[in-house]
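Residues determine shape. Take a concrete instance:
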Amino acid sequence: MDFTNERTPKTPESLEVSRVNTGAKLMIVRSGASLFIGSPQAPATLTLYSDYDCPYCRQFMVEDLPWLERTYVEPGKLRVERLFVPMSSAGDLMARAALCAVDQNRFRELDAQFASTPLISDKQLWATLKSAGVKQTKEFSKCLSAEATTLLLEAQKARAEEAGVKRVPTFALQQKTWLGLLTREELKRTIEAAMRN
């Protein structure tokens, strides 16, 4: 699957986007093409390539991500890098909305809404935004279709392509990459083995 086009930045650093959200329980940092949850000083980073329109991605976000955050992210042992690889127009719209929600310190709320209730139509987006507390301002509407948001998603897709990601959810931790969900015990073993190396 080819995720790139001629407008894809060569490096994430070429994007002039950097926002910090400290309004949520965990620090949300958008830097370059990446969105990070947790402390920048965490010794390891788990990268999650996902799509809101993917049922297995949503399952991970609902069942395992909260446990992962409590067990490893909040204590500062791990941070999670979120990269969106939308493979449908609905997934693209939700990824755009989530990235734009960072500006209102509402990423975590909207992320949770998208994980638990998949979006089916554009019309449903506005009701979901409202229930997540995202204000439907002119700035937010502009952000959804802004070139900066398009470039950010293209850079994330380029990262996925460089990593050889063809399907989601794909995870990367240190030198290990895997496709699909692991059991909680397998995930724990994988994270703790990576931290020992």
Summary: Residues 12-196 form a domain with the Glutaredoxin fold (CATH 3.40.30.10). The radius of gyration is 16 Å. Residues 1-24 have pLDDT under 50 and may be disordered. The longest helix spans residues 55-73.
